[in-house]
């Protein structure tokens, strides 16, 4: 029996097992589905939708091309990607998963990137948003606003390091490492923006409508993956598969001097980032440093749920998924390492009570991240429904105009 047939049998068996589990545990499946749905329409959709629409409009109006010319001297030497990669990097950090992948795929479709450049770029433009790190993890799970600054610092430094490490990926195939401009940089940037806008002959209304529909399509796909992996994670837990896998990695955790009690959260986090982070914060046998290291790894690896979302987005282009997956493993370990490396200075300054110069926004009573997170949970569903209705209106208008 060849490898292809074995793969077919394995995949069919896994899907059949999951279907049988859903039949045997309908209440658990429904509970997990509702949890995933709430996460999507309360947090994910409201926080990502504006960024997705804005990125589409910025690309259409040539602003991204303008930024690309200006950022070329920075992005090319550091990461060996065009300057437009700076836009994907910034938007990815601001809005979180999987905005970086969507923008990278869009830039590839527009011809701004070669395949190797796109694979380098997507490896470090996907990361957790500050809202998730501060609002959900540090405040919501750990109840420690100050911890968010260490987690964010380790996460983004790890992300930067991944970009540096992946800069030589596909070195032999790249032919656009150097680009010289004859005119001043600002003049070139303005000219590039103008030419890009002229090439896009869509009216403003059409451009906005396409941006809204494209963004909602992507967010519906993301919602499907969130719900699916929420159910999968729940079923794996109740089928004791998570516990079995956790037993297998206890020895591996001991190599890094992490307690065996973190094995279950690590397996949960490998599948789904939110549940893994939450379970990590609830392990009382581990110290706060050990919990932070595991949470950093989970944030960096980002979970199969996010990776599946990225794989679906990249499948619309010729960008390969393997470099992104390798980068996520690197990001996970690097984030954990930086958390360990900077823990003592962080603890001495912010957790020991010896500091007398803590900024106001670091004080425990200042919980604006938590307020923002709760505001999204309160008004997010209403915003999601409103945007879906607008999308339906665009569809109706398009169908009427065609007829």
From TrEMBL:
Keywords: Membrane, Transmembrane, Transmembrane helix. It comes from Siminovitchia fortis. Residues 44-137 form the Nucleoside transporter/FeoB GTPase Gate domain. Pfam families: Gate (PF07670). The chain crosses the membrane at residues 37-59, 79-100, 121-142, 148-169, 207-229, 292-313, 325-343, 378-396. The lineage of its organism: Bacteria, Bacillati, Bacillota, Bacilli, Bacillales. This is Sporulation integral membrane protein YlbJ.
